[in-house]
Amino acid sequence: ATCARINGNREVGMAVLYRATEMAVQKAKSAGVGIVGTHNTSTSTGALGYYCRQAAKQGVICLAFAQSPEFVAPYGSKEALFGTNPIAAGFPTSDTSSPLVMDLATSAYALFGLLEAKTAGRKIPEGVAQDAAGRVTTDPSEVLDGGAIRVFDGGHKGSSLALLVELLGGALTNAAIEDKKAKKSWGNLVVCIDPKQLGWTADEFQRRVDTVCRRVKKCEPLPDHGEILLPGERGDRVEDANERAGSIEVEANLWKDLQDMAAKAPPRDSADSATAPSSIFAASSGGMPESNGAPSTSRGTGKDSWGMDTRLVHPTDPCDDPYAAVAPPLYQTATFKQPDAVSMGPYDYTRSGNPTRAQLEHHIAELEGGDRGFAFASGMAALTAVTRIVRSGETILAGDDIYGGTSRLLGSVLPKQDINVVHVVMSDLDAVESALNKNKVKLLMLESPTNPRMQVIDLQRISAMAKKANPDTVICVDNSIMAPVYQRPLDLGADVSMTSATKFIAGHSDVTAGLLTTKGKELGDEIYFHQNSEGTAASPFDCWLSIRGIKTMKLRMDKQSDNAMKIARFLEKHPLVSRVHYPGLETHANHDVQRRQASGYGSLLSFNTHDVNASRAICEKSKLFKITVSFGSVSSLISMPCFMSHASIPAEVRAERGLTDDLVRISAGIEDAEDLIADLKEVMDEYLMETTGKPADVSASRSVEELEARESWLLERIRELESKVKTSK
C-alpha cells in the first residue's frame, strides 16, 4: 500500500509527524510514492522543514502540509479561520547532507512572533495583522484579543494556499475541520515521491536540481540586495552562528512552556520508564502504526483502516465455505473430486493446493502487504525455495550473524550447486556497499534483528544499495523475530519476506512451518513452481493450527515483548552479565534504526557472561525457562546457541563472527515477568555465591568500554585456543 493514515491518539503532534514522515519515505522507497496523513494529535506541528530535510537526505522528494490553530483570516474577512498553516518541500541534491528545503507558512506573520512581541512589549510590522474589527494594527495584544493575522500576500493567492493546506492537512486526514481549538485534533499530510517513478536515476535527478539552483544563484542581484540566497541558506547561516556562539535565543513564552512541560514529565528512572519502551515507540502508543507500513488505529469503514489486531482476526477468506463457519474448516485431504473427467475444479491434489493452506497464504500476504503468500513445511523449506531462483555460477550475499540452519544451507548445500556465497557484516554499511558493487549479487539474504546476537540491520538503506548496484537483485528478509506485527520488510524495499510460522504465528510450539510473501507476479510464479514441483508445502493441519494461532499473535507478542524488556533491564544490572543484546535498550548500537523500521522490539534477547559454566548453570537450573531451540512460544525458552541452534557453524567461524560459547539466548514467554526475573535472579545469585563467596550486587554497573574490552579479550582468547587445537591436530 502506498497510503496510510495514523491516528495520533492524543500524542504530541511533532512526534507523530516524525513517524509519518518515516513511513512515507519507506513507502516511496518500496512503491515509488508514499502518502501518509495524521490526525487526532493533541498539539499542532511546526518545523516542517526538518522532516522534509530528513526525507530528502534519503533521496526522495518530500512535501508536508500542517494544520494549525485558527489565527489567520481568509482574504477580506475579519474572522480568523485558517491556521498559519506551514508548508514545506525537500529536494535531494548531489550533496546528500544538504538537500534543498523550502519551509514557509501561508500567514504574513508567525504566531510565535506575535507572542514574542507581546512579551517584549514591541510592535509588529504594519500590514501583517488586524484587530477584532478588521483594522490594521501593530499592537500584538489587539491581534491576540480577537484579531487575526493576514495571509502572506494580503490577497486571494495567499488565502487560496491556506485553504489548500486546510483541505490536504485537515479534511483529507480526518482532522478537525470545525471548532479546531476545542477539538484539538490537528492534521498533517506527508507526500514522498521517488524520482525513479518518472524515469530518473537518483544521480540524474540530483544533478538537475543542482542545475536549477546554480542558475538561481547566478542571477544578477538588484543593486541594494546583495547575494541571491536559496531557500534555507539564511537559516543555515543563523544555525552556524548559533553553533559557534554555543547558544541559541529562545522566545520567552516558548521557554516557559518547555520548562513547564519538563516539570510535569515523569523522572527517567521511574518504574514505568525503566521497564517499557519510549511512549512514542511502544506498540500501544498513539504515535505509532500498529505494524510498520500499515494503517494505524484510524476507525474508518474500509479494511485498509483496520488496526493490526483487527486484521489478524478478520482476514479476507479466499475460500467459499457454504456453511460460513466462524472457525475456518480443516480440509485434511490429499485429493479432491473433480466435476467431470475432462475438467478440473479449483483444487485437485493437496501438494498443488489446498483450501486451508490457501486461507493462510492469503492472510499472510495481506498482513505483509505482498502480492502472494506461500506456506511451506518449515522455515528452511521456505528459504530453500527462495534460493532456487539462483543459478549455477551466480552469487548470494548474506550476513555473518545468521540463523544456524541458514548458515548450513549456504555453507554446505548450495556450494554443491556451484552457487557462490559471500558473507559480510551487515551492520557495516560501507562493507555491504562494497560487497554489492564488487559482486553481481542475484540474491541478498538479510535478517533483522539477527539471531542470536540481536544486531539490527538497516533494511531500507541496504535494500536501496542493492537495487542501485543491481536492479535485478532479489532481496529476501528473514522476518521471524519481528513477524508482520512489528515489521514489514516489503515496505522497506525487500522482494520476499520469510516468517517462520513455528515461532510467533502458531505460537505454541506445536507447528513446524514457514511462510513466504512476495512482490510481483514473476517472482511469485517461480516460487510456486518450486513449491509444487518439490512438494515442500505445509500440511493442512499445520496450516489450520497457524490460522488459529495468528488471531492472538499480537496479544502474545506485546506481552512477550514487554517481558523481554523487563528481563533485559534486569540482566543489564546483574554483575554476572557482561553484555546484553536487545534492540529495546538505549545502549544497543542500532536502537534508533530499530525504532525507525519497526514498531516494537520483540521478545528475543541474548547476553554474555564470559563464563561458560555460569551460562550453563543459568540454563540448567532455572525452573520456568525450558532449554530448547526455537523461540516465539507462549512458554519462556532458554538456550546456549553455540551448542544448539548454531552448533552446525564451525567453531572457528563462530569465533570470527563474535559468536562466543558463553552466549545465552532467551525467548520471553507470556508468564508473569516478576516470576521470570525472580527465577533468573535466584540461579545467578546462587552461582555468584558459590564461585566468589559474595552475594550479587545488582547496583554495580559496568562501563561500555569495560564490556567491550572484556569481549575483545574473550574473542582473542578463543582464537588462541582454536589455534592451539589446530596445531595439536
Jot down its keywords.
about 725 residues, alpha/beta, 7-stranded mixed β-sheet, 6-stranded mixed β-sheet, 21 strands, globular
Summarize the structure.
With 729 residues, the chain is of the alpha/beta class. Helix content is 40%, strand content 14%. Strands 10-16-15-14-13-11-12 form a seven-stranded mixed beta sheet, with helices on both faces.
SSE layout and pairings?
Blueprint: E1 3-7, H1 13-31, E2 33-41, H2 48-56, E3 61-66, E4 72-73, E5 86-91, E6 100-105, H3 111-120, E7 129-130, H4 140-144, E8 148-150, H5 156-171, H6 180-183, E9 186-193, H7 202-218, H8 233-245, H9 252-264, H10 271-275, H11 308-313, H12 355-368, E10 372-376, H13 379-387, E11 395-399, H14 404-413, E12 420-424, H15 429-438, E13 441-447, H16 459-469, E14 474-478, H17 483-486, E15 496-500, H18 501-505, E16 514-518, H19 521-534, H20 540-550, H21 553-573, E17 579-581, H22 591-597, E18 604-608, H23 612-621, E19 626-627, E20 637-639, H24 651-656, E21 664-667, H25 673-692, H26 704-728
Helix pairs in contact: 1-2, 12-20, 15-16, 23-25
Please give a structural write-up:
The structure is a single chain. By secondary structure, this protein is α/β, with parallel strands linked by helices. It is 40% helix and 14% strand. The protein is built from 26 helices and 21 strands. It has a 7-stranded mixed beta sheet, with helices on both faces. Strand 14 (474-478), helix 17 (483-486) and strand 15 form a beta-alpha-beta unit. Helix 12 (355-368) runs parallel beside helix 20 (540-550), helix 15 packs parallel to helix 16 and helix 23 crosses helix 25. The longest helix is centred in the last third of the chain and has 25 residues, at 704-728. It starts with a strand and ends with a helix. The model is unreliable at 268-299 and 699-704 (pLDDT under 50).
